[in-house]
Design brief:
It contains 21 helices and no strands. By secondary structure, the chain is mostly helical.
């Protein structure tokens, strides 16, 4: 490694520490301001031209809002419709009625496991937030657990969504790794499902049970009121809630559309009409748009609801998440500056100094790239590109190598990741509380995934 590589790594590490200090010290800067200031400082210290730095910040914020912001806004609208019409109330009542308090985290992990197959982490969380808040609010009212009900219910969901995002195709990062390594989607998917189960169990219900009594997390009341109505009082739904089947269809329609696209990619040839159609309908923004329109029609207009009230409700639904969206944009700006400053290249050069097995090396490179740049996709693409020659030249289990890379990209999701800020702001957490949840959860999932990869490598190949 050159001196400039070490300098870049030191600046990146110092930038993260500086960001945390701005937020948690006496300065107490708003996270958006802290992220913007840190992005500027890091960019200047790495020697980026001023014009390029400005473009990098705006491109990072814009790209993140384009990929995540619209989906989050549509998810807030869908969640508001589901809450106002009693859908989340009915589903949460069913889950609580048929599941003991002790088994609730396991049930929620199971729901997130299914939802997470076709969805990005952030999209899946947005889709499930109404259900998480509704179940947690009811659990909080019963006072049947010690600590935060929102942590008790939310941690298993975060663990399951993270595991599916990094371990199971058809998520784009893993598909990119599979293509670069020229390996099998089916084998990688089978290995991914096997590795995901223990990772979800340990990072979800078990870890959640350990930290719940120690945390008093409660989301902003405006978000709770938006996503979870009470069973009695002024905010209760005025009409009879729809049946469970229609409720599930309406709540999960975006997930179904994304899942259909995932299945079509496995069944039909690349570029076929079926793949094109499902790809359009199953893209996150279009799937969420269809979900909102379907919910508005089937739950309000078809039941002769008040259209003016619906429009006002949808307008109000976006207000509580404005802060979340801006902070996510700031995280995207910081991530883009780190990437443009070539911190990822320095990480690759560092990884070449170590003599490790391909599986460990793939996990290690993806982990370093993801942690330093704030992008799991950058981690996967960089590691897969670097190790592609190994997959074709030696006795390496290529599907397991793709899975190891995916697991590495999950490690320690922190302040330069958009998902970190989505969890922190949605649940109303401090920096420390967010670190104890999403950062530690994803680290557990990542390490358990690696252990499962190494264990499965001792067995004959599945395919």
């Amino acid at each position: 490694m050159s001196y400039s590589d070490w300098q870049l790594l030191a600046i990146a590490l110092g930038g993260v520490l500086f960001l945390v200090a701005l937020i948690v010290s006496r300065v107490r800067l708003h996270p958006l301001l802290a992220l913007m200031v840190t992005s500027v400082v890091v960019g200047l210290l790495t020697g980026m031209p001023q014009e390029a730095l400005v473009k990098s910040i705006t491109a990072g914020a814009g790209n993140t809002l384009g990929a995540v912001g619209i989906v989050v806004a549509l998810g807030a609208m869908l969640g508001k419709i589901l809450a106002d019409t009693g859908v989340t109330e009915g589903i949460s009542n069913t889950i609580i009625r048929k599941t003991s308090t002790r088994m609730l985290p396991w049930a929620m992990a199971g729901v997130a496991f299914v939802i997470g197959i076709p969805m990005f982490f952030e999209v899946g969380l947005v889709v499930l937030l109404p259900l998480v808040f509704s179940v947690a609010r009811k659990l909080e009212e019963t006072a049947s657990i010690r600590g935060s009900a929102y942590v008790y219910i939310g941690v298993p969901v975060i663990a399951a969504l993270a595991a599916m995002h990094g371990m199971v195709p058809p998520h784009p990062g893993l598909l990119t790794a599979i293509a670069a390594l020229n390996t099998s989607i089916g084998a990688t998917m089978l290995y991914g499902f096997i590795a995901a189960v223990p990772a979800i169990v340990l990072g979800g219900p078990i870890y959640g049970a350990l930290i719940t009594p120690r945390m008093g997390v409660k989301p902003d009341q405006a978000l709770i009121d938006q996503f979870a109505v009470t069973s009695a009082g002024n905010d209760a739904p005025a009409s009879t809630p729809p049946g469970l089947g229609l409720s599930l269809l309406t709540a999960l329609l975006p997930a179904f559309l994304m899942l259909f696209h995932a299945i079509a990619e496995l069944v039909f040839p690349e570029g076929s009409r079926a793949v094109q159609i499902t790809g359009f309908l199953g893209s996150p923004a279009i799937a969420m748009l269809i979900g909102v329109l379907f919910a508005a029609w089937i739950l309000v207009h078809a039941r002769r609801g008040d259209s003016e009230k619906l429009r006002n409700s949808l307008s109000a639904s976006v207000k509580p998440i404005a802060n979340v969206l801006l902070i996510i944009a700031g995280g995207g700006a910081f991530q883009h500056v780190l990437t443009d400053a070539k911190v990822g290249d320095a990480i690759v050069h560092l990884s070449q100094q170590f003599s490790l097995s391909p599986l460990l090396l793939g996990w290690f490179i993806a982990m370093l790239l993801s942690v330093s740049t704030g992008s799991a996709t950058v981690g996967i693409v960089g590691a897969a590109g670097l190790l592609a020659p190994l997959a074709g030249a030696g006795p390496v289990n290529a599907p397991l190598l793709a899975l190891a890379i995916g697991c590495g990209s999950l490690f320690f999701n922190y302040a330069n990741h958009a998902g970190f800020w989505l969890v922190k702001e949605s649940f109303g957490m401090s920096m420390g509380e967010a670190t104890m949840t999403i950062s530690v959860i994803q680290s557990i999932v990542s390490v358990i995934g690696l252990i499962m990869v190494l264990l499965m490598n001792l067995l004959p190949p599945l395919i």
